[in-house]
Structure formats: structure tokens, C-alpha cells
Amino acid sequence: MSCPASGNKQGMKRDKLIGAIAGLTCLAAAFSASAQPVVSKNRYSPYQPVADITEGLSWPKGQALPTFATPASKMDMLTVQDLSKDEQITFSSLQGLVNRKQPRILLLDARAEEGKSTWAATLHLEAGGNYSRDNRYDLIAKYAKEISGVVLYDPVASPHYRNLAGTVAAQKQGIPVSNEVYAELKGRKIELPVLEDLTTLKMTSPIEIYQYLYDHYWEKCDKRVIVSAKPGDERSGGDYHHTRDIAAACGAAVVWLNTMDPAEKAMLKKFFADMKAGEALALGWYATERSGIPAATEFGIGTMPADFFVSGTVYAGTNHRINIPAVPKMPLLENKVYVCVIVSDGDNIQYTQHAMRRIWDRAAESRGKMPINWTIAPGLVDVAPGIMNYYYGSATPMDCFVTGPSGMGYLMPFNTLKERGADVGDNLTDPARMDGYARLTETYLQRSGLRVITIWDDATPMQRKSYEKNCRQLYGATVQNFKDVPSVAGSNENGRIRFDRLVVPYAGSYQHIRDSLSHEISRWDGKSPLFLSYQVTVWGEMKPNKLVELRDQMDRDFPDKVGFTRADHYFNLYNESAGLPFNLCLSADTTVRTSDSSELPFSLLDGTPSTLWTAAKAGEAWLGFDFGKAYQVNRYVIRHAGANGMAREFDNRDWTVKTSLDGKTWKTVDTVKGNSDNVTDIEFSKTSARYLKITLLNPGQDSTARIADVEIYGSN
After folding, report:
1. Reported pTM
2. Do 658 and 692 contact (CB within 8 A), yes or no?
């Protein structure tokens, strides 16, 4: 029986499906063969789903931040601008203490760029009690029975006592209060015992105060999280409520040490040295970016910039299941210039909460006109899944999401810009710590569905090897040179992962990126595809409308020569062009047929575990893939029902994988027995194949096969 090569595309018009269905009928007839010996295998499955909870915290090993319970149907709301500085310290700790059981207190910021109540309305958080400057202490009275007492401090002696008191109060299930706040409590007949009186301490310098914290309280702190929060002083502002609720709920230490001061930086490193790469995270910010981020990087600890992030203990309880967007089929590889433009600064979770929402909504008319790659923090799956789901749910097929630097938390493996307090060079030399960070990153790539990492700035050969080895989810990564290390270069790691050097990092103007693109395209010899990646700063003029303008200008200047692409397509097209393995399931030429489907089962090839293919017929279920032509195939990935968030007892248990060149002669490349993973990732020796068949021998306890997504990798 002769079967034509099929070339259907997801989303094709209905009248074009007839030929594809006919071709797949031939394909279905071809999928039967005798077993051959397994060649080789290597299983890898880092992901376990997060379960919904109704009360308390869930914080399993391998999860950076805890999962909070679903917020109460009616929330007690208070605007932070109705509070003094020290009242913000008190009320944010109260929020964390109360929300630890169930989120019930929502602090709002009247100065938020997106609007004070925008996220509350988006996530259906309704007010049950509205508190203001006049009745703010009634909120403490309402929850007084859930508070064990107060920790007294004097910010006049040193503002750093705010951080010390917050740390102590979290351990004692109390709230930190200044002398003035305590007097207000007593004047309003809110009687709370004093758990500890820090006003008797005589220390004044930051090093003395945090050494005291280290000596007396650090041992009992949960070292998976540390919060770096500026406590303020008379000359400059401070961070009085952002992220402090998370510290109170988690029992985390709150510190602020000036990373521009060598002695204070050394003190901060004492805390980081006691934390474990792959299990720990820093929240907040530092005196400067390039003096602070490397201090944590040295220990394999990423930082989630959060010094303007509000009410994390509420948003961490919203929409626990991440609805990862479907991935459109990538364009056929052509001999042209492929351009990938990445928008900064999504690692800042306060940016995703505030500025990004404003930019995103205002760009609704521009988004969808061209591929735009948005950086986002993978840690949002813990700290604000509802916010992540908003962007995912309102994205167009042209909107692609990638990580902010440099994975799970901002890490600076290699600094390329010398600044005061920050030397150029390698910040992470310990391979074990790098592996720990990369493994944690992989977990969050899986959970968030992100496939591309933007690394700030560069990565050494050891670091690149660690990313490739530990981040199986990765399609590719970008590296960059800001100024002082001209040797930064792209590379192909282990024949799998492309590390692409940005042509321009953090471009701030239209003229800058236009001139650079024009220069690079003019130099192109046209002999093979050219790949150019850029990053634009979100704080400059390069908003989505200007990117559309840039695309239109390139089309006029270089007709039919330039293609702007999604980042996931960009790296797969690069690998295809370079003869490296790429995801064949993204190809428009790949089609699939199953044993139990009257429709074309596109959900198997849509790049997301959020959709599910099922087969409930008795007997063996199978999936048959036709790549349209032969490739050197060497790997497959199955995301089972568990990756979709369903119960694990419904996972597929046993299966075989066979390949064929002609649909007649088959060989078995893998056999699996007793699978319990949510994600199965298998490599086998390269074999020439046009067809691949997965036969599910034991679909699950209820005899129903369930698969969320399949990836198959091959090279030309």
C-alpha cells in the first residue's frame, strides 16, 4: 500500500484535512510489527505536580516556595498608604501569620501601576471587610486570637531592628511592633503579651545586629528562603511591607546588608553559605544589582527581585494549576534571516505584578501581529500562579514566554560589566552548586512550561555543561556581553543545546536595534540561514508597537529575507539548520494517528500538558507518528496525566516504542515497565526512521490511556 507524505498544519482549514486524513489512514495501517531488542535508555523525570490545599501550607522538598491555600471567598482589604512605616512592618507580618492558615488579608497598593484593585478583580478576590486609616487596628483585633504576642523593637536605635523583630516574630508566631505601634494597641484595648523585648539591646551597626540574628535565631529559620529587605532610614526610603508577609509565613530571616561594603557583604555571605543550592532562594533586592546578585550566585542561589511585590501570601494561593499555552507549529525552515527579540525584565516579580500588566494590556492591539518573546519568572508558579495564568491565558499564539535571568531566580554566572563593588569574571565556580541551581531550574521549567533561558551575562564551559546536563526541558539559552568581555561567544553544548550570543543585549532604542539588524542582514552571504537574537529593555521605547514597526521596516528594507520568530521556534529551527536534534513534533510535516480517535489528535503535538488525549477502548492503545521524511531519531518525551495535574494513579504504566523507515519493518527502541513518572524522557541510539509508534500496554488502573504531550527528537 503506497502512502503519500503528509504535511498538515495545526489550524489548517477544514477542506485541507481530507488529504491528511487519507494519509493518516495509510499510516494507521502501517503501525504493526514484531519487537526488536531495546538499544539503550536513560530516564529522567524531575517534575511532581502541586496539589491544591484548603488550609495551611504545602512545602515539599524541591519546591522553592510554599503553596498556600485557596484564598477565602471574602478578603479583608487594607491599603498600605493608610499605614505608617512601622505599621506596614506590623501589618505585613500579621498578613503572613494569618494567611499561613488561609489567605484572608489582602494588602493593596494605591500607587500600583496596574491599578490598586486590578489583580483583585482579575482573580475574583472580593472584599469582605474594608479597613482604612480610621479602623486599621480593628484588623489586628479581629485576628488577635491567632497571634501569640508581640516582639518589641525601637527603629530609632537602628532601622535594622525592624528586620530582626520580623525574623523573631515569625519564629514565635507573633507580630513585630515598634514602641509607637504597641502604645496604639494598648490604647485600643488590644492586649497582646510581649514575647521578646528587643528595645533593651544596645547594638547599632548592621553587622552587629545581623550577627546577633545569626547567632540567636538563624538556626531555627527555614533556610530555603531568605528575604533581603531595606528597613529604611531618615535619608532614604525603605521596603516596609513588600514580601515581608512571605517571610512571616515561612519563618524566613529578613536581612539587609550593604553589598557595596566589603564587611557587610561578607556578613551576608555567611547566611548564604548555610543555604543549599537547588533548595534555596533569595527574595527582595540589594544595594546594587551587580554587587548583590553575585553574592548569592557564588552559592548557587538565585534571587527573585521582589522589593515592590505585594501580598504574595494571597497570590500564592490563586489558580494553583498552571495553564501552559499551546505552541503553534513552527514555520518550515527556509534560507533566510531568523530574528528572535526578547523583552526584559520578567525575572522581577514586581514587574510582572505591576508594569508588565500595564504594558501587556495596552499592547493588546499590537500583540499577535508578530512573534514577541516575553521574559517571565518561573517562580511565579509558586508565588503568584494566578498572575502567571493571566498572561498565559490572554496570550496570542505570537506571544512566547521565556525565563528572565538566568533560570529559577536571577543568577549571574559570569559578570561582563565592571562596576563599583562588582568585578568582571566567574561568580560560580563550584560544579555541585551550579548543578543544584540547574536542577531546581529544570523543575520550574517543567512546571511553568518555559523552554528558553536568558542568561545574564555569560556562562563558562562548566556552567553551560551543567545547564545542558540538568535542564532537559531546554530548547536553548542566550548569553550576552554588556561591555568588558569581548570573548563571549555562542556554542552548541553536547550537540543538543544552543547557547546563542545576543547581538545586542538590553537595547533601549528603536534606532539602536534597527541599525544593528540592518548591518547584520546586509553582511549575510545568503548561503545558509542566519540566526540573530536580541534583547530589548522594557523600560525604553521598545514596546510591542515599536517592535511591529521594526518588523515592518525590515520587510520593506529586506523583502522576503527576514523572519521574526518565537524563541522556541528559533532554537528548533537553529538545530534543524545545524543538523542537530530538534523537536519533530513542532514540525508542520509531522502528523499523528491514534488507536482511539476519530479526530486528528492535535493535543498530543500542541506543546502543552494542559490538554489531554485519552483512549478508553479495551485492549492496547497506540500513537503513530509520521515525520513526512526520514530523520535520525534519538529521543522521546512523554508527559503523562500527572504532568497535567491529574491523579498519578491514572498514569500509563507499560509501553513499547518502535521505529520504522517504511511502515513495514519495525524495531523496538524502548520498552518501559511499571512507569510512575509524570514526565518520561528517554534517549536511545540514533536510528533512521520516518515513523514512530508508542503502544500503551497498561494504560492505567481504569483502563484509560491518558497522555498530555509527546516530543520526539531527530536530526536531518
Report:
1. 0.93
2. yes
